Amino acid sequence: MTNLRSFFAVLVLGISPSARAQVQNFLVNPNADEGTKSWRAFGDATVETCSNGSPCFVLRNQGYFIQDVNVPEDAVGQYALLVGRATGEHLPLDGSITGRPYLYGYMMNAGDPSGGRIYAYLQGQQMSGSGGTSGQWETLYGVFKIPLGTARIRFFLQQAACKGNPHNAAVARFDELALYILPDAATAGAFVGDARF
Which DSSP letter does residue 78 get? Predict the structure, then answer.
């Protein structure tokens, strides 16, 4: 499995020094090194040892994880890049989306973790697993402009669901997660475009 942290560290070297100084991963515990710390787990959501011997986030039966990330006031008008590695196992053979790993998110106002106003739903782009070879890791990502009023981004790890198609044994695994805030579309495009996803 490609080490996404090292990859992005190298990739950032090709970006201007002023942009480089602003790049940080806003997620806490993005690699499950500290178990579920800083993540809220719902349903069948656990941390387990993956095939490379490192911990990873694991979902079954529509379980999910979320982490709320407070963003700086000057983030409005900039771009959020949600990115991570994921794999699906025991996915349905009929080609449905059920059980596939996917990233999801909200742009929200500040407030209580149990509620808040949602300004944007972060979905589409390359946020969903392809449902390819079982156990094959792939990079999921999406780039979204941060709207006025946003004070936090809710980052989800989920399994896709198709009405009438049960999850059964489907498993979704996630690792090497990141949430970057980038100053403009060109910089966000450099992160995504240069990666040759």
Answer: S
